[in-house]
Amino acid sequence: MRNITWSQAMNEAIAEEMRHDETVFIMGEDVAEAGTPFKVTSGLVEEFGTQRVLDTPISEPGFMGMAVGASLTGMRPIVDLMFGDFIYLIMDQLANQAAKQHYMSGGKLTVPLVVRTNMGATRRSAAQHSQSLQALVAHIPGIKVAMPSTPYEVKGLMKTAIRDNNPVVIFEDKLSYQMKGPVPEEEYFIPFGQANVISQGTDITLIGTSSMVQVCEEAALILAEKGISAEVIDVRTIAPLDEHTLVESVKKTGRAIVVDEGHQSFGVTSEIVARLNEQAFYYLDAPLTRMGAMDVPIPFSPALEDLTVPTAAGVADKAVKLVTGER
Fold first, then answer.
1. Which of 123, 136, 162, 201 would disulfide-bridge 229, Cβ 3.0–4.6 Å?
2. Which residue ranges does the record assign to the Transketolase-like pyrimidine-binding domain (predicted)?
3. pLDDT band (50, 70, 90) for residue 310
4. Does 235 score more than 80 pLDDT?
């Protein structure tokens, strides 16, 4: 094990897969010499050259369409989408082309491409560069959606994504790129649809995605000081979703809070709560609760922006009320 940053873990995942398979290449704005604005792909162009690390024009629909075409002809492209907010620009290529080709061809065609992009507020990037749009993508049949929470998770999930024969979108929290964590030196993969139970608990289940996993972990520490035992689960992928692990945890604890940084209405939290309600209702001791971002554009004002997303203190406060029966 080494302690490396999220950026290094992602860089290693891409480099290892490019060495493993010559059909893997990466394309996007500023991925070559600049190494992306977050320096995640730094050094790749020196090893693999400009034919496999391609700087593109500022035309997201154009290079996403090229990636779909390349994947249909035997390549495995990685599309670097500079900000998750630009998902809207590639939605036709992603939702109407990549997601549907396998079905529309009767299983004869596959679209093995990965879109890696980011999400998350509290980075002072304002309303058009701070959105968390994972629910939009997960709503589309035919696309897999991964939401890593640590350097270990991002490397294992990215390697799995690159080798998957389906289109995959991997969302990375912008605030996590310099996060350090243990990552094995040997090769490993994390299967999709397999949640990770980070800590066991008996009183309430805290279910998080991406950086909200750390929020849940912090909340669990606050709750422990109050004598409340919280089980913390990292969802890892929302499409496919590991319903079994989540349901079994809620059956045990009788209570749950689902935390995601996307807007709360019609979002990831709503879907997970609905599935838990369908499968674990008669085991519940309190209503299932969800916490997402406020249903407002993300403000540029730091004081206002910080109020829009879930916090550990807020999660812990809700958990106490659920456990004690407060209203």
1. 201
2. 4-179
3. very high
4. yes
User: pLDDT above 70 covers what percent of the chain?
Assistant: 100
Q: In angstroms, what CA-CA distances link 116 with 158, 239, 271, 289, 313?
A: 9, 15, 23, 30, 30
For residue 201, CA distances in Å to 211, 249, 253, 259 come to 20, 9, 7, 17
Structure tokens at 66: 């090229």
Amino acid 123: pLDDT = 83
Structure confidence by residue, pLDDT tens digits, 66-78:
999 999 999 999 9
Q: Which of 12, 17, 29, 60 is catalytic?
A: 60
Which among 17, 129, 172, 305 is annotated as catalytic?
A: 129
Task: Select from 237, 280, 274 the least CA-distant residue to 258.
Answer: 274
Say how far apart CA 33 and CA 274 lie, in whole Å. 46
Q: How far is CA 240 from the centre of its chain?
A: 12
Mean residue pLDDT across the chain: 96
**Residue limits of CATH 3.40.50.920 in the chain:** 196-324
Active site residue 60: yes
Q: Is the pTM of this model over 0.85?
A: yes
Report the pLDDT averaged over residues 114-136.
Answer: 92
Measured CA to CA, the distance from residue 41 to residue 171 in angstroms comes to 16
DSSP 78-121: EEE-S-GGGGGGGHIIIIIIITTHHHHTTTS-----EEEEEE-S
Going by DSSP bridges, is the β-strand pair 53-55/2-5 parallel, antiparallel, or unpaired? unpaired
Cβ-based neighbour number of residue 289 at 10 Å: 18
Query: Which residue reads 């993508």 in tokens?
Result: 137
> Taking phi first (over 0 means left), then psi (-120 to 50 degrees means alpha), and beta for anything else, what does residue 291 get?
beta
